[in-house]
Amino acid sequence: TTKPDHWPWQTHEGFPGAADSSHLGVCSATPPAFLVCSTEDGLCDAHENTDVFAEKLKAAGVQFEYVKKPMGKHGHGLKGSWLPQCTLWLQKLGWASKV
Predict the structure, then answer these.
(1) Phi, psi at residue 34, to the nearest 5°?
(2) Chain centroid to CA 29: how far?
(3) Cα(61)–Cα(46) distance, integer angstroms
(4) Most buried by CB count within 10 Å: which residue of 32, 81, 84, 89?
(5) Residue-wise pLDDT tens digits, 59-99
(6) Residue 70: which residues within 8 A CB-CB, separation 6 or more?
(7) Looking at residue 58, what is its pLDDT?
(8) CA-based nearest residue to 40, from 10, 79, 12, 83
(9) Angstrom distance (rounded) from CA 11 to CA 63
(10) What is the DSSP string of 24-83?
(11) Is 62:23 a contact under the CB 8 Å cutoff?
């Protein structure tokens, strides 16, 4: 993966510092998380980002939902039909009402 020059870190240097690494702050008190990652994202690929975060959430016993599938390149937004899955997850947690 090649990161743009303006990014604060490069892949070969590893993850960003602790202040910018959400996976380093995961503990049992971390709130539930809904993760979405496109397998076609060449900038923030799953292996370097969401997979790591998901592993930390699992190890800490934090509830999470992880959608990982082809949805286009970086910045795919709402493409990939993950929104209904997120809606159901929010409803399951009682954070969204059923319509």
Answers:
(1) -110, 115
(2) 18
(3) 20
(4) 89
(5) 999 999 999 999 988 888 887 789 999 999 999 999 999 87
(6) 38, 39, 40, 80
(7) 97
(8) 79
(9) 28
(10) GG--TTSPPEEEEEETT-SSS-GGGTHHHHHHHHHHHT--EEEEEE---SS--TTTTS-H
(11) no
DSSP 9-20: --GGG-SPPGGG
CA distance linking residue 93 with residue 63, whole number of Å: 10
The single-letter code of the amino acid at 94 is G
State both tokens at 99. Answer: 């319509």
Looking at residue 13, what is its pLDDT?
59
Query: What does the angle CA 12 – CA 18 – CA 22 come to, to the nearest 5 degrees?
Result: 95
